[in-house]
Amino acid sequence: SVGHSNCPRGCTNCSLDNGCTACRRGFFFTFIRTGMRHRGMCVASCPLGYYGVRRKTYSFCNSCQIDHCSACFSRSYCTLCQPPYISYRGRCLERCPSGLYYANYSKDCRLIVDCMIGPWSPWSTCSRSGQTCGYKYGITSRSREVLEGPSPNGASCPALSENRCCRMEMRHCA
């Protein structure tokens, strides 16, 4: 056993061969595999694929036990499924249950999925007939992308492009 001051952050006891053997309050005990070797480690939050279990005198990380799950909240509740699986009420499914629609932005099944759009692009250069000079007025435009398409019962997407009249900087071409 190594003295407490020489242990990695979060450890109260450790050994040179096995790493941490006990953790400070608020840290979770977990094993990190390096090649064929497992070493104990104390972490502030459990790694992906594990969830934290707190007990009165110690806390530890437990692995998710749900098929196709990448991150979980508890032994039986998945919060992030491996693609192409879909998260629904803590389970990982191949498709949404009947009557529900997949929301690709939040990656879950919902009764209603409304259109979600991204931010406007910057306004384009003022031009007319493909030229940026030779006219007093031209047109400038901007656009935005659909981040999430609506379900049949969801709110439809607003306009994705806009045009407006603009004054050209160079009325006469050089």
From TrEMBL:
Q: Which Pfam families does the record associate with it?
A: Furin-like_2
UniProt entry keywords in alphabetical sequence: Disulfide bond, Glycoprotein, Heparin-binding, Secreted, Sensory transduction, Signal, Wnt signaling pathway
UniProt source species: Tegillarca granosa
Q: Where are the coiled-coil regions?
A: none
Q: Where does this protein reside within or beyond the cell?
A: Secreted
Family to which the UniProt record says this protein belongs: Belongs to the R-spondin family.
The protein's name is R-spondin Fu-CRD domain-containing protein
Family matches, as SUPFAM superfamilies = Growth factor receptor domain, TSP-1 type 1 repeat
InterPro entries reported in the protein's UniProt record: Furin_repeat (IPR006212), Growth_fac_rcpt_cys_sf (IPR009030), R-spondin (IPR051514), Rspo_Fu-CRD_dom (IPR043601), TSP1_rpt (IPR000884), TSP1_rpt_sf (IPR036383)
Question: Could you tell me which residue ranges the R-spondin Fu-CRD domain spans?
Answer: 9-109
